[in-house]
Protein backbone atom coordinates (compact mmCIF):
# COMPACT_ATOMS: atom_id res chain seq x y z
CA UNK A 1 0.00 0.00 0.00
CA UNK A 2 2.88 2.38 0.77
CA UNK A 3 4.35 1.89 -2.70
CA UNK A 4 0.98 2.69 -4.30
CA UNK A 5 0.73 5.88 -2.22
CA UNK A 6 4.24 6.87 -3.31
CA UNK A 7 3.41 6.26 -6.98
CA UNK A 8 0.22 8.30 -6.71
CA UNK A 9 2.16 11.09 -4.96
CA UNK A 10 4.90 11.15 -7.64
CA UNK A 11 2.63 10.70 -10.66
CA UNK A 12 1.92 14.43 -11.19
CA UNK A 13 5.65 15.20 -11.06
CA UNK A 14 6.49 12.40 -13.50
CA UNK A 15 3.77 13.48 -15.91
CA UNK A 16 5.23 16.97 -16.06
CA UNK A 17 8.88 15.89 -16.54
CA UNK A 18 10.63 17.66 -19.46
CA UNK A 19 7.44 18.96 -20.93
CA UNK A 20 8.85 21.11 -23.73
CA UNK A 21 5.42 21.36 -25.35
CA UNK A 22 4.09 23.28 -22.31
CA UNK A 23 6.89 25.82 -22.74
CA UNK A 24 6.02 26.32 -26.40
CA UNK A 25 2.37 27.17 -25.72
CA UNK A 26 1.13 30.75 -25.99
CA UNK A 27 1.03 32.38 -22.57
CA UNK A 28 3.56 29.97 -21.05
CA UNK A 29 5.85 31.53 -18.45
CA UNK A 30 9.13 29.84 -17.50
CA UNK A 31 10.31 30.14 -13.91
CA UNK A 32 13.75 28.68 -13.30
CA UNK A 33 15.80 28.05 -10.20
CA UNK A 34 19.37 29.20 -10.78
CA UNK A 35 21.81 26.56 -12.00
CA UNK A 36 23.97 24.50 -9.65
CA UNK A 37 25.65 26.61 -6.96
CA UNK A 38 26.99 24.29 -4.25
CA UNK A 39 25.98 25.00 -0.68
CA UNK A 40 22.95 26.49 1.03
CA UNK A 41 22.08 30.13 1.51
CA UNK A 42 24.82 32.75 1.41
CA UNK A 43 27.82 33.49 3.63
CA UNK A 44 27.22 35.79 6.61
CA UNK A 45 29.27 38.57 4.95
CA UNK A 46 26.95 38.56 1.89
CA UNK A 47 26.75 41.84 -0.02
CA UNK A 48 24.56 42.17 -3.09
CA UNK A 49 27.08 44.30 -4.98
CA UNK A 50 30.01 41.90 -4.38
CA UNK A 51 29.85 38.44 -5.99
CA UNK A 52 32.89 37.28 -3.98
CA UNK A 53 30.70 37.42 -0.84
CA UNK A 54 27.96 35.20 -2.33
CA UNK A 55 27.40 31.55 -3.10
CA UNK A 56 28.03 31.31 -6.84
CA UNK A 57 27.73 28.88 -9.73
CA UNK A 58 30.53 26.38 -10.03
CA UNK A 59 31.74 25.10 -13.41
CA UNK A 60 29.07 22.36 -13.41
CA UNK A 61 26.43 25.04 -12.82
CA UNK A 62 27.76 27.18 -15.66
CA UNK A 63 27.73 24.17 -17.98
CA UNK A 64 24.20 23.30 -16.83
CA UNK A 65 22.99 26.83 -17.66
CA UNK A 66 24.62 26.67 -21.11
CA UNK A 67 23.04 23.23 -21.79
CA UNK A 68 19.60 24.44 -20.73
CA UNK A 69 19.89 27.50 -22.95
CA UNK A 70 21.04 25.35 -25.87
CA UNK A 71 18.10 22.97 -25.39
CA UNK A 72 15.69 25.93 -25.35
CA UNK A 73 17.23 27.51 -28.47
CA UNK A 74 17.24 24.15 -30.32
CA UNK A 75 13.46 24.14 -29.95
CA UNK A 76 13.19 27.63 -31.43
CA UNK A 77 12.09 29.19 -28.13
CA UNK A 78 13.15 32.73 -27.28
CA UNK A 79 11.99 35.07 -24.55
CA UNK A 80 11.13 38.73 -24.88
CA UNK A 81 12.36 39.28 -21.34
CA UNK A 82 14.38 37.17 -18.90
CA UNK A 83 13.84 38.62 -15.43
CA UNK A 84 16.52 37.73 -12.91
CA UNK A 85 17.13 38.13 -9.22
CA UNK A 86 20.00 40.50 -8.49
CA UNK A 87 22.05 37.70 -6.88
CA UNK A 88 25.16 36.85 -8.91
CA UNK A 89 24.26 33.17 -9.36
CA UNK A 90 20.88 34.01 -10.87
CA UNK A 91 22.20 36.78 -13.12
CA UNK A 92 24.98 34.52 -14.36
CA UNK A 93 22.50 31.70 -15.00
CA UNK A 94 20.22 34.07 -16.95
CA UNK A 95 23.10 35.42 -19.02
CA UNK A 96 24.55 31.96 -19.79
CA UNK A 97 21.13 30.75 -20.96
CA UNK A 98 21.34 33.30 -23.78
CA UNK A 99 17.62 33.09 -24.56
CA UNK A 100 16.63 36.75 -24.28
CA UNK A 101 17.55 40.10 -22.77
CA UNK A 102 18.21 39.90 -19.01
CA UNK A 103 16.57 42.44 -16.72
CA UNK A 104 17.11 42.51 -12.95
CA UNK A 105 13.95 42.27 -10.85
CA UNK A 106 14.39 42.82 -7.09
CA UNK A 107 11.16 40.96 -6.33
CA UNK A 108 12.98 37.79 -7.43
CA UNK A 109 15.75 38.28 -4.84
CA UNK A 110 16.01 35.51 -2.27
CA UNK A 111 14.22 35.98 1.03
CA UNK A 112 15.88 32.87 2.53
CA UNK A 113 17.34 34.94 5.38
CA UNK A 114 14.24 37.06 5.99
CA UNK A 115 10.86 35.45 5.32
CA UNK A 116 9.08 38.65 6.42
CA UNK A 117 9.27 39.86 2.78
CA UNK A 118 7.87 36.62 1.31
CA UNK A 119 4.31 37.82 0.69
CA UNK A 120 5.23 41.29 -0.60
CA UNK A 121 7.90 39.91 -2.94
CA UNK A 122 5.57 37.20 -4.23
CA UNK A 123 2.84 39.79 -4.91
CA UNK A 124 5.37 42.08 -6.61
CA UNK A 125 6.51 39.18 -8.81
CA UNK A 126 2.91 38.40 -9.81
CA UNK A 127 2.40 42.10 -10.59
CA UNK A 128 5.58 42.07 -12.68
CA UNK A 129 4.31 39.08 -14.67
CA UNK A 130 0.85 40.59 -15.13
CA UNK A 131 2.30 43.93 -16.23
CA UNK A 132 4.79 42.57 -18.79
CA UNK A 133 3.92 41.66 -22.36
CA UNK A 134 5.57 38.93 -24.39
CA UNK A 135 7.12 35.58 -23.59
CA UNK A 136 8.69 35.66 -20.12
CA UNK A 137 11.29 33.72 -18.21
CA UNK A 138 12.15 34.33 -14.56
CA UNK A 139 15.36 33.12 -12.90
CA UNK A 140 15.15 33.09 -9.14
CA UNK A 141 15.69 31.03 -5.98
CA UNK A 142 14.12 27.98 -4.37
CA UNK A 143 12.23 29.97 -1.71
CA UNK A 144 10.75 32.39 -4.23
CA UNK A 145 9.65 29.64 -6.58
CA UNK A 146 8.12 27.66 -3.72
CA UNK A 147 6.16 30.76 -2.69
CA UNK A 148 4.90 31.24 -6.25
CA UNK A 149 4.20 27.60 -7.09
CA UNK A 150 3.92 25.71 -3.85
CA UNK A 151 6.45 23.27 -5.32
CA UNK A 152 10.14 22.63 -4.76
CA UNK A 153 12.63 22.76 -7.62
CA UNK A 154 16.11 21.40 -8.16
CA UNK A 155 19.01 23.56 -9.28
CA UNK A 156 18.45 24.50 -12.91
CA UNK A 157 14.89 23.16 -13.00
CA UNK A 158 12.26 25.12 -14.91
CA UNK A 159 8.60 25.19 -13.96
CA UNK A 160 6.22 26.25 -16.71
CA UNK A 161 3.24 28.30 -15.58
CA UNK A 162 0.15 29.87 -16.95
CA UNK A 163 -1.40 32.85 -15.23
CA UNK A 164 -4.99 32.04 -14.22
CA UNK A 165 -7.12 34.46 -12.22
CA UNK A 166 -4.07 36.23 -10.77
CA UNK A 167 -2.36 32.99 -9.69
CA UNK A 168 0.24 30.81 -11.36
CA UNK A 169 -0.74 27.26 -12.30
CA UNK A 170 2.05 24.79 -13.08
CA UNK A 171 1.60 23.16 -16.50
CA UNK A 172 4.98 21.48 -16.92
CA UNK A 173 8.55 21.15 -15.75
CA UNK A 174 11.93 20.74 -17.38
CA UNK A 175 15.22 19.61 -15.89
CA UNK A 176 18.50 19.38 -17.77
CA UNK A 177 21.02 17.69 -15.49
CA UNK A 178 24.39 19.37 -14.92
UniProtKB/TrEMBL annotation:
Keywords: Signal
A matching Pfam family: His_Phos_1
Signal peptide: 1-17
Keyword Signal assigned: yes
Organism annotation: Aliiruegeria lutimaris
Name of this protein: Histidine phosphatase superfamily (Branch 1)
CDD domains: HP_PGM_like
